[in-house]
Amino acid sequence: MILDEDQVLIKKTLKGDKKAFEELMRKYEKKIFSFVIRMVRNEEVAIDLTQDFFIKVFTVLDKYNFEYKFSTWAYRICYNLVIDHIRKNQGQVQSLDDDSVSARDMLDSENVIRQDGFSSLSQKETRAYLWQMVENIPPKFRELILLRYIQELKYEEIAEITDLPVGTVKNRIFKAKEILKKEMEKDGLPA
Amino acid sequence: MACPPEHKILEYLDGETQGIEQSLIRDHLLTCPGCRRGADSYARLNQMLLQPADIEPPAWLVPQIMKKIYPELPKYTSIAAMIAASFIFFVTWIYIYFDFSSSSLIQALQLTADRTSGWLVNAIKAISAVYTSIQAAFKASRALLDMLLGLSPVAPWIITFALAFSGMLLFLTTRRLLKKSHGNKQ
Questions:
Q1: Residues of chain B with C-beta less than 8 angstroms from the C-beta of A55
Q2: What domains does chain A contain, in order, with CATH numbers?
Q3: What is the ipTM of this complex?
Q4: Which residue spans within chain A are E strands per DSSP?
């Protein structure tokens, strides 16, 4: 069996090589942290969850099946941790199944930074604004956009991680993009 | 080809279409200005989504996690482990080598038991049983040692290797136990 870069690091970690696990963490820390913080929208919580995630990965690393991609396996652990956290703190964070709150309502909420004169915004600022919008769309859409564009996963991998049918993943990503596009157009942004 | 539904164009832009479907959409976009406009718009959105504003985790995060996963032992722990391991190791080997089977300890215990009763007798009997077992193990080791010494000219090397190996094993086990208890405390 040919092992990829991650799997070689896992083998070394399982043999007691500390540096190998550190390398694995360095490789994934940004993506994991970016995903977590955009889901929970709280830096302290994101740090704790990222920490919990890596400790959990280390603890169950011996159960990892080398026939599968490490990233999918790891993102599934991360996703479950974040979802568990959100479910436990539903009062503080938007419910995952909350259909009553539309993306429109969310975008109009006071959480969204609204500025005038978008035409003068640089590409970087436009991108920052778009991501601000992503952070404010309902979690059931947001999580898929994050998995697709931060973790750069395929629809099938996302379906595997979230336990959703591929069709639902496609639909939700489509709807999320539609919302984002409409919002950007409405605000005169170059979408 | 009729205009494909918008979600199909999005799938195409996300690289999620294959084969004929992919070719059909690509060809259609070349000839249909309406669909191309929509596709360009989503392509720009994709591009921006693929370049998220960086959210850097704190620099201390990975070192902190490493400390939690691999708790460092205090400096003296290794030395203490080595001394403890060496002590147990040498006492064991000296015991085997000099064969203390004639030890009077067990006899003294048995005499004590003769003059007492109740739980103390049982306790002494239990100690005596354990002691006898250990003594038997030592005797077996001693017999093996004698056999090896008389068996071959390489016997001293084998014994040296066995000594070094068991010493190392003892040291590593002691160190691991200390490390584990240290980790649990944290």
A1: 65, 68-69
A2: 5-88 (1.10.1740.10), 103-186 (1.10.10.10)
A3: 0.71
A4: none
